[in-house]
Amino acid sequence: MTKKAGNNFKELIDNIYHDDEVADARITKGDIKIILKAFHRQALKMLKENEEFNFWGFFKIRVKKIGGWKAKTLDDKEIEVKPFYRTYLSLSKKSKDFLNSK
Fold first, then answer.
1. pTM for the complete prediction?
2. Is residue 78 a contact partner of residue 71, using CB atoms and an 8 Å limit?
3. What residues in the chain have per-residue pLDDT under 70?
């Protein structure tokens, strides 16, 4: 029996724990927490190293470093925009199809 999904870390752990396949495997909430934290660390590491993380069948995140520049405000003060990463997230076709299904 699968519970309704929530939107925070604790609810995610609870929902994974109550997933039929996970329940059959007798995986503990502690194990799930360790795996999710490791996934989080490794996904960020891969994103930083490769500027892309692809979770096949679910989503892809890409980052692109944008150089800084100087600009003027409306009251003519000069400001500096520091370099930053622009983030792009795209869902897979499989995820889009699932979300658009009835």
1. 0.71
2. yes
3. 1-6
